[in-house]
Structures are given as structure tokens and as C-alpha cells.
Description:
Order of helices and strands: HHHHEHHEEEEEEHHEEEHHEE
Amino acid sequence: MNRPKWLRPRVGQNRRRPGTRDADIRREEELRQAEREAEGTPGHRSFRQEMRAARLRQEEARKKAEEEARARRKVRLEAQAYINGQADSPEPEPEDPVEQARKARLERQRARRLGRRRSPQPEPETKETGRRLRRRKPKRRLNKAKVALLVASIALLIASYVLLHQPWLAFGQLQVVGDTAVTLDEVKEMGDAAEPLNIFNINRKKLLSSLRSDYRVEKADLSLGWPNILKVVITDRKPALYVAMEGGQYAKVDPTGHIIGLADGITGGDAPFVSGWHISATDLGGVTDDEEIQGILKFLNQLDDDLKQRINEIHVDDSQSIRIYLHNGIPVILGSPDNAVAKLKTFKAICQELETKKIKAQYIDLTYEKPYIKL
Length: 375
């Protein structure tokens, strides 16, 4: 059965291509616009187009105003140059301030976009040489009052120095500090201090040199005390032992081997004495070179002060063996000086045991590998 014509599908008939309808709409709109322009009507425009047209009109008006202002400025400059007689070499036309501000604004915006700092403005150039002008620092004017005060202060200091060093001026006191055998008169003589005493005229360098070279002095120093006192701080040498010397005298020897005293006998009990041994004659202030005495001093210098005070006598026999007698009467045999230094810790421990436990023994021998106690 055949379908009626109005029910038959129309395949491929009157089919439009894609975009044909849009093209027809644009063509019709263009024809209408052309008709409006021919009739003298501007037609309908969007808000964006209106704003753009307004900006273009403002820009054209601004350019026109700038050109007119430039022309007026040029005429004014030419007239001024003609009046001043500089018609042949008129001054260059300065740039419009508005244009300068616009360029500066654009430059700042560009610098912000690039993340850089604003470049410093170039220094002005001279008309004749074209060199850049340097800013001149303002000249400092001298303050006469300050200069006068400075000069007066310097003059006062010089006058005070000269006055304080006059030999006829008595100024200050001299004191000897410390338990020393050096007297105040000896200190004045060493420092060339004449009467009346002026501590500024004392030769301090010579005073210190003389004191430090004295056989009785171990250390010497100077210090100032309030208000005008010059203190001489002296530390005397302390005796470490007494030893017999050729000629029948006894020598007082300090820990460094210096002979700090000579006497016919033992004058004090502040140090142990060495029996069974003697040294060669040495002048006062000299240093003994006896190896046995130097070994004993090396041993004693490593002991505590309390333990040194407990030693009463140090005996050296014919075989150069050292025997130490403590205050309790117990002898401790150490042997040679080298063996005594090696047995130092053992000697300290034995002395501690004798003190705490009250041990009674005939003698203690440390020459063996283990200490031997004879009860």
C-alpha cells in the first residue's frame, strides 16, 4: 500500500548545510545596518561600543589640546628668544609636565610588574659641557667657642702635668704591702724617690727591675690606692729546706734552689733541714747546682703544704739514699731522688695511714716494689 505524499519521508531534500542559518541571519543584519546608514540613522550599538567611542573622543580632544598648548608654548619661547637676542639659538623646548607624569607612571607600573625597584633619577647635566652636576656638601663652619674650649683643655692638661712633676711638690704616699723583709727606705732608694716625696717622680721601671732582681723577692708589682697612694706589693721567697755549706754555715734554700739566707746555724723551724750532706760554698742570692739537693727540692715541690710541715728532717747517707723523718719520729726510706719521685703517691698514702690509724713502726721502706713496714 502506497503512503500518501504528505506521509512520505523527505530524505536529502531541502537540507541546509551547518551554519547556513547563522550566515543568513548575519547577512540580513548587515543589510538592515546598511539601510539604516543610508537613511542617516546610526543604528543600535552596545554599551561597550558606546564607552569605547567616548574614550576615543576624549583621547582625540586631549591630543588636540596638547598640540595647541605646545604650539602656544613654542610661539612664546620664540618671542622671548627674539626679545632677548637669542633668535639664532633658542632654548630647547621643555617636555610637557603631563607627558612626563604619564611616562613616570608607566615606568612605575612596568617596574612593579617586573618586580624591580624604581631606578634612581639621573642627575642634571650642564648646558656647556654636558657633565653631571655633583651635589656639593655644605661647608662646615668652625665653632669658635668649641675651638677655644678645646685649646684651653689641652693647655690645662699640659700645665697640670708639668706642675705635678715638679721636684719641690710633695704629692702622694708610698706604701710597702706584704710580709717582706724589704724596708720602705730600700724601696725609696731603688725608685730614686727624693724628699719631699712625689709619687709622679718615682722611677717605676727602675724600682720594679731592682725589686725583681733582689734575692729576697719572688714577685713585685705596683698598684694605685685612693686617693694618692702608690702601693708596692712584694712577695718574698719562702725557705724550702736548710742545708750545711762548706765553711760551717747553713744555707736557707728556696724551692727554686736560690740561696736566700746564710747563718751559722738553723735559725728557724719553718722548713726541714738536710743532715749528712753539704753543698759547695755559694754567694747569697746564687743558685745551687747540687744534684742531690735539686732532687730533694723536686720531690718536696710535689707535696702538699700540710705534708711538708710534718717533715722534720731529711737524711742523706753515704750511698746517697734519702731517708725522711716525720714529726712522730718514724723514718721513711725513699732511696735515690729518682726513686723518691716515683714513690710519691705511695709516700702520701703511707703518711695518711700513719696519721689516721696511729701506726707505730720502727721504719718504713719504700725502695721495694711493695712498701715494707718494720713494726
